[in-house]
Amino acid sequence: MNQGAVWQDPDEESAIPVFHEDAVRICTSLNKRFEIVFVNDGSTDNTLKVIKNLAKQDNRIHLISFSRNFGKEAAIFAGLQAAQGDYIVTLDVDGQDPPSLIPDMLEAVASGEYDCAGTRRVNRIGEPPVRSSFARRFYAVMKKNHRNRDSGWRTGFRVDEQEISRGYFGIT
Fold this sequence. Notes:
Layout: E1 2-8, H1 15-29, E2 33-40, H2 47-57, E3 61-65, H3 72-82, E4 87-92, H4 102-110, E5 116-118, H5 129-145, E6 158-161, H6 162-167
């Protein structure tokens, strides 16, 4: 089993080293090969430099960097195109999505009983209305294209079999 992980990160330079350390520790404990795909979504801080420095030390890191902020959905799409794992994990590096949940989520999908596992945000209180609107539209498209319409794409923190993740966008 090979795992790919996609993380998008606008302006998260201070969170990235902590996240990387946690993610590597957790993924290494699974005794499986893994890669980390960071998507720099047009950060204006030193995020890109931090990721490049980590990539020099860790050849499992792959970097996609946007010239400007295109948004979470574009970052996920780019990351899914690049990820090579049998299972693909998508999450943010900002601490909202704890990497400690990855082993249980992977186990659920690898069991063959489920084709995806994800977390669900209960509400969007405090989020700008425009962002909430784009998120609802993106996840509605994912739900429409998912073979199990009841589960759909309701979260950015999820684990999918590669063919499921790539199938959302017709990626080959």
